[in-house]
Design a protein that fits this description.
This protein is of the alpha/beta class. It is built from 5 helices and 6 strands. The strands form 2 sheets. A 4-stranded mixed beta sheet has the order 3-2-1-4. Helix 2 packs across helix 4 and helix 3 (105-111) crosses helix 4. The longest helix is centred in the last third of the chain and has 12 residues, at 153-164. The termini are far apart.
Length: 170
């Protein structure tokens, strides 16, 4: 692998850092001000030989646009993650869950084609390195409660509120 670029942007939900490879793919991202929080999340087969702070280009622009209200801005951003076949499939499926329409872990497992794989679906969320671009924050417990989130429940709540804001009446 080659050197990756990282940058931290200020967002209403807190600092957001993304690590982007030389091809423009997000390797890891999340609501942290430290790239050191993200590097361990990158699969060994994708690990860059080095990281440098710099311009993340279109990825950074998408982050800003999303937080400014363009909820679809992150949908087309390319992501690279590696794991087993089910988890990789589950991450692809997660990218189809639309903003403003969260699903339960059970519903997410059903969307992956394995309705009994609720724990495996939850595991895909827990091991997702590319937060926001692979929107694990859009998965809730069956009772509607938030469940877990690597970047904290206040961030998850902010994201869900942000994505449902256009659905509320004034």
């Amino acid at each position: 692998m080659s050197t990756a670029v990282w940058a931290t942007r200020d967002t209403p939900a807190g600092p957001f850092t993304a690590v982007v490879d030389a091809d423009g793919y997000v390797l890891a991202s999340g609501w942290t001000g430290s790239v050191d929080d993200l590097l361990p999340l990158i699969h060994d087969s994708l690990a860059p030989t080095g990281v440098t702070e710099g311009d993340t280009g279109a990825v950074g622009d998408a982050i800003d646009r999303y937080h400014d209200g363009d909820l679809s801005a992150v949908d087309g951003v390319a992501v690279r993650q590696r794991s087993g076949p089910y988890r990789e499939h589950a991450w692809d499926v997660l990218r189809t869950v639309p903003a403003g329409a969260p699903v339960t872990y059970t519903g997410y497992a059903e969307k992956t084609g394995r309705p009994a794989a609720v724990r495996a679906a939850a595991g895909a969320c827990a091991h997702n390195a590319a937060a926001l671009f692979v929107p694990c924050h859009r998965v809730l417990r069956t009772d509607g409660s938030l469940g877990g989130f690597r970047w904290g429940l206040p961030v998850k709540r902010w994201l869900l509120d942000h994505e449902s804001a256009d659905l509320r009446l004034d």
